[in-house]
Amino acid sequence: GYDISKLLAKTGDTTFDIGFANTAVCKSAITYIDGDAGVLQYRGYPIEQLAEKSTFLETSYLVLYGELPTTEQLADFTEKISRHMVIDERLRELFRIFPRKSHPMPVLSAAITALSTFSRDTIGFEPDTIEAATHQLMAKVPTLAAYSFKNSTGTPTLFPDYSLSYIENFIRMSFGTVTEPYQFDDTITRALDVLLILHADHEQNCSTSTVRLVGSSQANLYASVSAGVHALSGPLHGGANQAVLEMLKQIRDDGVTVQDYLDKVKNKSDHTKLMGFGHRIYKNYDPRAAIIKKHADAILKARGGSDQLLDIALELEEAALSDDYFVERKLYPNVDFYTGLIYQAMGFPVDMFTVLFALGRLPGWIAQWREMVADPTNKIGRPRQIYVGHTKRDYVPMNER
Ligand code: ACO
Question: What are the TM regions of this chain, as residue ranges (predicted)?
Fold first, then answer.
């Protein structure tokens, strides 16, 4: 009922931009997206090439420092991270206080906040301190993520193993037992590596903007990353991978047809969305979804034949892409449409899906925070508003209300 143009006239130069759909808040040299063409590049390198040829740690180095590492640089980075994977015993005890069935996302965020209290010498804005905090987070977040998972399954935690790679360590700490040596499946290890590469950064999305906004007050890197985890948890952002799998299961279990489900989405009466579809920036096929779709097929076949949920997903995609509602609104599968199916095939329960996203996005959050604090033109983030409340009125005593 408000006349926005009149309200705007009152606020002078303020731009009214709900959801920051048209507002650039920083300059960044990390990630380039052309949403109309379906292009994604980290530091100029196409995501397709990185997914095919790189590893998550190498891509993390690229995202963080701007160049692909030499052999020596990568070995040094890997060594610095391996050295810090173990967490303080008292921090490990923290996991015992959470209820057994806690969702691992709030547990992860709480653990990252707690980690900052054990890492006080890495809190600050000197280059060495920032570097040390970067290594601490890159090294310890996989351990914390695996322990959040172990807490949710009620099984004992494992120490990291220095002889293993970054991804292998995380897989072993998630699924390994204290009694048996862990048997790796190379297809699964590589698929997780690729999935994390695809999530490493995505410019000013909701969680990254949160990291920057929190950090703009000169809050430390741990506090900013912990806030990013919370922002990622929502179903319209990282939580969508969990929501997609739940949607596919609901379609299967309710026995509804794909067309009936799409009709319900289009009807909009109960606000049902086709989860894993649509994106603020991509008005074309999300390039990450295209890569993941190929892997989904291979992994599901390797893990035991056809998967009913993948069939439903493929059918949903085909029907949506030839439906006027989705075509007119340029709604295509996004990164989350197929990831959940792969994570499930790897043995992760749905509650862990968004934690895996957080693990992948970690280098991006850190790189964006570092870029921001290194920018001398940076200012504290402080949006404006259009006030639509009461005009001035006088206090009413209690007995007259
Ligand atoms: N299903 C059905 N309709 C949709 C969907 C969807 N998934 N997404 C958008 N629309 C419709 C909207 O209802 C709107 O229709 P209208 O013009 O008739 O009002 C139109 O498309 C434009 O959508 P907006 O909501 O304005 O688009 P916005 O850019 O604000 O939202 C978002 C983007 C949040 C991703 C949205 O597409 C969505 O909710 N998708 C489902 C959740 C999801 O998959 N999120 C993951 C995003 S990727 C990531 O975070 C990693």
Answer: none
Catalytic member of 279, 286, 295, 307: 279
Does 353 sit in the ligand 1 pocket, CB within 6 Å?
A: no
330 lines ligand 1 (CB under 6 A): no
User: Which residues, listed in sequence order, are joined to residue 34 by a DSSP beta bridge?
Assistant: 39
Ranges of the chain with pLDDT below 70: 1-2, 4-12, 304-306
269 class by beta-carbon count within 10 Å (0-12 exposed, 13-18 middle, 19+ buried): exposed
192: left (phi over 0), alpha (psi -120 to 50) or beta: alpha
Tokens 């995505």 found at: 202
Element spanning 302, H or E = helix 287-302
The confidence score (pLDDT) of residue 38 equals 92
From the list 331, 336, 312, 306, the residue with the least C-alpha distance to 261 is 312
ipTM of the complex: 0.96
Can you give the length of the chain in residues? 401
